[in-house]
């Protein structure tokens, strides 16, 4: 895994606004995110969280494992193939083609280990269109983990998992990445697993600070307004 120097600014937006047609969805966003930060991005539906992730991602795309909201899986391919695709950039095309069709033992072992940790090892050779929403979400997370990058971007990456799984998977993502920016609707997870919370509402930053300085009730109020 490539590492980035601690306290290095990885992401910066200054006076950044985004519009879709006449609809402004992000207003004058100012923020810096440093290496090592674990940032929960919260806010009601439509607040602009995914749009903000889209603005930040290109700044470190080469070092970022991305887990988009729709998962981005290829339905007709197996769990193994979908996860393996997270590591395509590490090898040349012929190696990848061979490995997708006839997995080498070493690659198969790595992908199998991820599926075991994610609790989907019995699905390794199933095509992903046969999986439940939560199982598909774990495949998308497996693919992001297989990228082996220092930064993780997740757009509601654990929303389809039950509470126990969501916590375990989030912990795994945090353990394996130096810097994370994750959109979440689960306020408790935001406060217990992240050190910084950025709360958006109607395209404005409503709160940006330490998770330790926030209570769940304050976050609830943000959603209730
Ligand atoms: N391609 C688009 N064209 C037009 N409007 C868009 C487009 N993408 C997003 N929007 C609008 O931008 C606003 C912010 O959307 P965004 O997906 O960033 O919100 P979000 O906070 O991630 O929501 P959710 O929690 O539901 O995923 C919404 O009002 C949405 O309708």
Task: Describe this structure as you would to a colleague.
Keywords: ATP-binding, Nucleotide-binding. With 225 residues, the chain is α/β, with parallel strands linked by helices. It has one domain: P-loop containing nucleotide triphosphate hydrolases (Rossmann fold). 36% of the residues lie in helices and 25% in strands. It has a six-stranded mixed β-sheet, sandwiched between helices. Strands 1-2 form a two-stranded antiparallel ribbon. The model has no long low-confidence stretch (mean pLDDT 91). It binds adenosine-5'-triphosphate. Adenosine-5'-triphosphate binds at residues 20, 23, 25, 43, 45-51.
Helical amount among residues, as a percent range? Answer: 25-40%
User: Could you give the count of β-strands?
Assistant: 8
Number of helices: 8
**Main β-sheet, in a few words?**
6 strands, mixed
The low-confidence runs, each spanning 5 or more residues with pLDDT under 50, are: none
List keywords for this structure.
single chain; 225 residues; Rossmann fold; 6-stranded mixed beta sheet; two-stranded antiparallel sheet; 8 strands; binds adenosine-5'-triphosphate; ATP binding; ABC_transporter-like_CS
Nutshell version of this structure?
By secondary structure, the chain is an alpha/beta fold.
